[in-house]
Design goal:
By secondary structure, the protein is an alpha+beta fold. The chain is built from four helices and five strands.
Amino acid sequence: TSPFAWLRTRFYYLLIRLYFDQEFSIEEFTRGAKQAFSVVSKLLSQRKLDLLDELVSAEVLQVLKEKISLLPDTHRDALAADIDAIMYTTEGDVRIYYDDDGIKFVSILMRFWYLNGANLPDEVPGETKVFQIVFGDESTKEKRHLLTANYEFQREFTEGAKPDWTITRIEHPRLLE
């Protein structure tokens, strides 16, 4: 990321700690976001969308129900990310906003890069083959693809609101479009 973007996100983290949650830690948030990404991506892959009610906003869940039903099995398999297969995570955009009724929200976009062994065709654009490992003999090859995903987490900080983060955007480029 650019130095300007890095400074801007750190400034927003300071504002979150000062005005919304003194206990907020980006390290702890990132750990939780990785766990949520792993759980949600596996449930998407398994088409267990009914288990996402508490984790994903209703609007996103409705869109996912339509998209998942149209996905080929290979693309659906590629959605799943084991927590140990997440190679890199970074924060994207951080936003703090108030709606017309004075409700306070914080939104953090997280970007994930993960390895997946789904049997994707070689011509899938936007992904990179990282490993093609030979185990035993030449006829046994295992492919690994480096895939990306963007998940946006949102939390309401209005007095009396539940202290839960909800996923308000899910993007798996080239897979879930």
